[in-house]
Write a structure and sequence with these properties.
Chain lengths: 171, 316
């Protein structure tokens, strides 16, 4: 069983908050909602920390399994279309000119639309890889697939997303 | 066939893990044309970071800490004011010192109350400690705010930029007629520097471009982007300050008492030729980012640092 003291908490919080929030944005596409769900995950993790066992898996796997369950609960309650709020996306731009930075948000909104058009599992795996930055072995534990399967889905999903994004760019 | 696909996806995942650790797609082992395209796209995703607002980070942390140790309320509140040790080691010794001083100061004050001023000699020592502690805490608090602001802007992504036609005006007055807020201009410009044009991106966002040519500074540009935090539809707009890849240095400072970030940066443009993509640096200079009320500003300049700051401070 694990215990959390102040020092451990600080470390976990600093390390996982950005990843968890990033993951939530990938999944729900709305800043406010992502903040609420991130807070829910942290609160659940803190109250259930005594049930975490190191010998059963990495902390990140445990934490993102909670995050995934929080998302599943939320998806049950909300219609997916209502959750997408591209105006709330908050992201950075490539360097270039100040004007280009400003325009960059539009491209990100298109990227997000592409993500939203993927199948649930593909989007989940992309979020766990690029937002949560988990290795395939841990993603496999969270989603209940083999690591090889995760790799294949990831490659296909990225190809699909890229093509959709390019099509969108050409319009 | 299946084995090939498995090998390719395994290699792809390995490459993505490298990208997430900061490698570049061009350094990775490329298996085919489509693989390359997917990898470059993955690189863009790997560089995309959605970050929580600093205020959210701070309030959630506080709330979780209270749950973690409700009995340590005062200690937690004081600690929340201090920079986090693991992120800013340069402040850690100072933070520890301040905490120690607070303990000493509170202890000293308690003793003073109990003794009721009988031992007058104690007064000066404990009061000095308390005042010093408060002053130092306030100073650190100010630093913390600016650091949080910096964190919010320390974001980056590398990607092809979309083209968009802006309406171009030759004078601020002409642009002002189609803009929803009073366009601010620098009261100071170095000799030889003049307005080139004003580009209206949206009624809530403009870029004023200045050029200079003189014996002292040669030829260069000053570009000021300004926009309303909320556009006319009431939608929140964020500026994504360039303090990422092209930046070698960041300095926190105050412009007319407003916190600002001065960064050394590069402006670059994407270039493409058969089978390859790349970037060319078109200028190097300073970037100053700040906010004033509802307005957000980003000034890009090839002028020397002091001149850049002088121009930025004069924007009204």
């Amino acid at each position: 069983m694990a215990e959390v003291n102040e020092a451990t908490f600080e470390e976990l919080y600093a390390h996982y908050l950005p990843r968890l929030f990033n993951y939530m944005i990938y999944r729900v596409g709305n800043r406010q909602l992502a903040e609420d769900l991130t807070a829910t995950v942290f609160e659940k993790a803190l109250t259930r920390i005594a049930t975490y066992r190191r010998d059963r898996g990495a902390f990140s796997t445990w934490l993102f399994t909670i995050a995934r369950n929080v998302i599943v609960d939320h998806l049950r309650q909300q219609a997916r279309a209502e959750m997408v709020n591209l105006d709330d996306l908050y992201e950075t731009a490539a360097p270039g000119t100040p004007e280009a930075q400003y325009l960059r948000q539009e491209e990100l909104a298109r990227l997000y639309t592409g993500l939203n058009s993927l199948a649930e599992r593909e989007r989940e795996i992309i979020a766990l890889k690029f937002a949560a930055e988990l290795p395939n072995t841990r993603i496999a534990q969270v989603v209940g697939l083999s690591a090889e399967n995760v790799g294949v889905i990831l490659y296909r999903a990225i190809g699909k997303l890229r093509r959709r994004f390019e099509e969108e760019n050409e319009r | 066939m299946k084995e090939n696909q498995l090998d390719m996806s395994t290699e792809f995942s390995r490459n993505v893990d490298e990208l997430l650790r900061g490698a570049r797609a061009e350094d990775c082992n490329v298996l085919s044309g489509e693989y390359r395209a997917n990898l470059e796209f993955a690189e863009r995703l790997a560089r995309t970071r959605f970050r929580p607002d600093p205020s959210f980070q701070a309030s959630l942390k506080q709330s979780l800490q209270r749950k973690l140790a409700p009995e340590a309320g005062l200690k937690q509140r004081l600690r929340a004011l201090l920079p986090r040790q693991e992120q800013r080691p340069q402040y850690a010794p100072r933070a520890a010192l301040v905490t120690a001083r607070w303990r000493l100061a509170l202890g000293g004050l308690l003793v003073l109350l109990l003794v009721g001023g009988i031992v007058l000699g104690w007064r000066s020592a404990s009061t000095v400690l308390a005042e010093d502690g408060v002053v130092r805490l306030l100073r650190l608090r100010k630093q913390e705010v600016v650091l949080l602001m910096q964190e919010a802007y320390r974001l980056r992504i590398g990607a092809k930029l979309p083209e968009k036609t802006a309406e171009v005006y030759l004078t601020v007055a002409e642009a002002q007629a189609v803009v929803a807020f009073p366009i601010r201009v620098p009261a100071y410009l170095p000799p030889g520097c003049h307005l080139k044009d004003v580009r209206v991106l949206e009624p809530s966002a403009v870029v004023a471009d200045y050029r200079y040519l003189d014996d002292r500074y040669g030829f260069g540009l000053v570009s000021i982007l300004q926009f309303q935090r909320f556009n006319i539809k009431g939608e929140k707009q964020d500026l994504f300050f360039e303090v990422g890849e092209g930046t070698r240095e960041e300095i926190l400072l105050f412009l007319d008492r407003k916190p600002a970030i001065l960064a050394t940066g590069q402006g670059w443009r994407g270039v493409r030729w058969p089978g390859k993509k790349g970037y060319i640096v078109v200028w190097e200079g300073y970037i100053v980012n700040w906010e004033d009320g509802d307005m957000v500003f980003s000034l890009w300049s090839t002028l020397p640092r002091e001149e850049t700051l002088r121009v930025a401070a004069s924007v009204r």
